User: What shape does this take?
Amino acid sequence: MTARRPFRDPATWVAFACGLAFLVLAAIVNGQGYAAFDEPVIAFVQGLPIPSGAWEAITAAGGFVLIPIGIALVAWLVVSRRYRLAVIVAVALLGASFFTEAVKVFVARPRPPGQPVVYAPGYSFPSGHTLNSTVTYGLIAFLAWRSALPEAARRMVAVALAALIVGVGLSRIALGVHYPSDVLAGWLAGIAIVAIAVVAAHLAEAAVPSG
Assistant: This one.
């Protein structure tokens, strides 16, 4: 397989753009304590005619369930003897979790004021549910897209997972446990991590001798 130069890989530029946007947003929040779009977006999302029970069901998809999903994903890659890809996915999943906690401690942004619908300990920036669900479901979408499934099925899986990622982020705003800037940061960092994993996967494939 012909090696793909990292700087010619579109995923490299996606990672760079999202990473830079994340750093800018983190600097704004760390310096001002808020983002200008936080209040209007909160008002809009919390004003949607969606019951809190539905939001709670959606937000659960970005919680503890990600752990068994991630373990199952890595195990499936190992069983499939795709060892390099298994390592890349495992590092991305673990790295996303550690990165989230490190940034939360560094920025130390309090949760939004008021009474949230669900319990959420710790700091607010970035949204861990959003970031980790973006990485987990984003990696699944990447693997599904490269699978032998029919193109229509691959598109449906990608769209469904993208909708789930968006839904998890919005649910954190609707339930009153995160600011919109927390959620946006989670999406940006999550996409950057997935893009880095994609670049690593392309490089790993290029390193395997043909035949």
User: Anything to note?
Assistant: The chain has a mean pLDDT of 92. The chain has eight helices and no strands.
